[in-house]
Amino acid sequence: MKSSITIQRTLPVWKRRAAWLALIPAAAILCLAAMPLAQSGEANTGSNEARLEGSWRVTATFDDGTPPLESPVSFTADGVMIGSQASSVDNLFTPWHGAWTKTGRREFVFTAICLYWDNTLSQVWKCILKETVMIEPDGDTYNGQASGAEYDPNGELRWGTFTATTHGVRIKAK
Fold first, then answer.
1. CATH of region 54-170, choose from 2.40.128.120, 3.90.1150.10, 2.40.50.140, 3.30.390.50
2. 123, CA 20 to 30 Å: which among 39, 43, 45, 70?
3. What is the pTM (predicted TM-score) of this model?
4. How far apart are CA 60 and CA 71, in angstroms?
5. Cβ–Cβ contacts within 10 Å for residue 58, how many?
6. Measured between alpha carbons, how far is 95 from 85 in angstroms, rounded to an integer?
């Protein structure tokens, strides 16, 4: 009589363990290959395109001879610009708030507004600033051309317009 039990041949235990152990490095290599690599800001764009995102120390030199003004300015990845400038006893400034966009490989434009209290006139004024900046090939400095105008509380242009050249230096964590 024939038996209904069949004998299955299996690999010895040590060969099964060796096969599993051989799969571990292969799985690790596949996982590492699938992970995105951390790259610098310039490399993330896939080219040498400059990035405006980050914080900058900006010096504005006015064309009318007004003393240079230094301000910290930050640009977020979603197109927001925030900056500040020193207030004085006579003029108390709010931070600058605005929006920026890229117009060329290394060129950007932004528009920002600032409100300030003029203590001598007891009025709140508004200043609108427009600027075009060109990031230098090093990626850590920029030069720009700015223009602006000041408006009285009724929205009328007062004190005329102003122009300035700007120079920004990226603020780095290290």
1. 2.40.128.120
2. 70
3. 0.69
4. 8
5. 21
6. 7
